[in-house]
Write a structure and sequence with these properties.
404 residues; mainly alpha; 15 helices
């Protein structure tokens, strides 16, 4: 069971790390992004060597019992070192002098972590009392071995300090950003860090209890690794949300906009700009560009049909929507959908009312995400029964020359 669990988690986290690395390859001048890709690469390594079968296979290959634990913890220390450097960079934003100080502090911090971890590895090499494999109970099995005790203590100190620093700093930065995917990512990252501190506390407590003669396997070898696994996933999710979140939102908008875009551009094909550039490529490519293109082309259709729309169409749709008790966002969407359908129908029949509507666009927002959401809502209600009733009343009044 543990093999399947940890190998699955490793595969999932390798995919996330690959996504971050791909982003960095596209923007290699972004030092923070490159550092993030490097430090998060330690997480799937941890999951990989947490699988007992992989752990034992590595030790058999090297001929050194429990050496996989050193590699596993080294991957954690890699993350801790990267987190320390990120902390120093984030807290040293400013002029060139601040940047120079951050670089110098980063070098000292990395040297300190590397030196401390080198001492820990020496303690491990000198302190192992036997050659028995302990993939799941390493800390409790060696609770009375001074060398391993020092190895574990130094590991928890490095890891815990980096987690505490990130856990404090990330919410502070998130509070200055307002609602955004970056702020959500920072808060998720902070939650992963605090849960990681629970892992450190469980390991340390279980270790001390075992040393004192009390059985604490359930704490050190049960709760601790599970909390660490969840914490690692939260940390990776926190690092990924600022990039994945907007793309996921764009994909949802694209799916909601597509039926409306397809319908209106089929009737007014001249507004399209030719074959989509993503044809034959990965379907998740250029999501923001595709969503922006669809919104722009729908808006072009709306501008083109406004001279075919009677002002009474918008007034009637607003009265009907208001009578139905609709809130303003959905009310505006219903009015806009009714005007767009009416304009397309009158354009098809060649009807040019006099006077015509100044505009059929009811809501325009400076925020592209809000504008996309509004148009997606227009798409949702485009064939709503309330919109149908507005067009039916216009037809029954004898003002239509073609079906709406």
């Amino acid at each position: 069971m543990f093999d399947a669990l940890y190998l699955t988690l490793s595969a999932v986290t390798w995919a996330i790390v690959g996504y971050k690395a791909r982003a960095w390859f596209r923007d290699r001048s972004n030092t923070d992004l490159g550092l993030t890709a490097l430090m998060t690469a330690g997480v799937p390594v941890v999951f990989l060597f947490s699988a007992p079968r992989v752990y034992r296979a590595f030790d058999r290959l090297t001929g050194v019992a429990n050496l996989a634990m050193v590699l596993l913890y080294s991957a954690v220390v890699l993350f801790a070192a990267g987190a320390t450097v990120l902390l120093l960079r984030w807290t040293s934003r400013g002029d060139r002098a601040a940047h120079t100080r951050a670089v110098a502090r980063s070098r000292w911090a990395v040297a300190a972590v590397a030196g401390t971890w080198a001492v820990a590895i020496v303690c491990f090499a000198l302190g192992r009392p036997d050659a028995v494999e302990h993939p799941r109970d390493f800390s409790t099995a060696y609770a009375h071995a001074p060398g391993v005790v020092a190895f574990l203590a130094l590991y928890l100190a490095i890891f815990g300090a980096s987690l505490a620093g990130l856990g404090v700093l990330c919410p502070r930065y998130a509070a200055t950003l307002g609602p955004s995917w970056l702020s959500r990512g920072l808060r998720t990252l902070a939650a992963g860090c605090w849960l990681g501190l629970l892992y450190c506390a469980c390991k340390l407590t279980g270790f001390v209890l075992t040393w004192a003669g009390h059985d604490a396997h359930w704490l050190s070898n049960g709760i601790a690794p599970m909390s660490a696994s969840i914490a690692a996933l939260l940390v990776l999710l926190g690092f990924s949300l600022p990039a994945v979140g907007p793309r996921a939102a764009a994909w949802r908008r694209l799916r909601r906009l597509h039926p409306l875009w397809q319908e209106v551009t089929a009737q007014v094909p001249e507004v399209t700009i030719g074959a989509p550039r993503w044809t034959g490529r990965w379907p998740l490519a250029d999501l923001e560009w595709r969503a922006n293109r669809q919104m722009a082309e729908i808006r072009d259709v709306q501008r083109g049909v406004r001279r075919h729309v009677e002002p009474v169409t918008l007034d009637l749709a607003r009265r009907r929507a208001d009578a139905a008790g609709l809130a303003e966002p959905r009310l505006a969407a219903v009015v806009e959908a009714a005007a767009l359908r009416r304009g397309l129908a009158n354009r098809f029949s060649g009807h040019l009312p006099d006077p015509h509507a100044d505009s059929v666009v009811v809501t325009v927002s400076p925020d592209p995400a809000a504008e996309h959401e509004h148009l997606a809502l227009v798409a949702d209600v485009f064939h709503d029964r309330l919109v149908d009733s507005v067009l039916d009343e216009l037809r029954s009044a004898g003002t239509a020359r073609a079906p709406g």
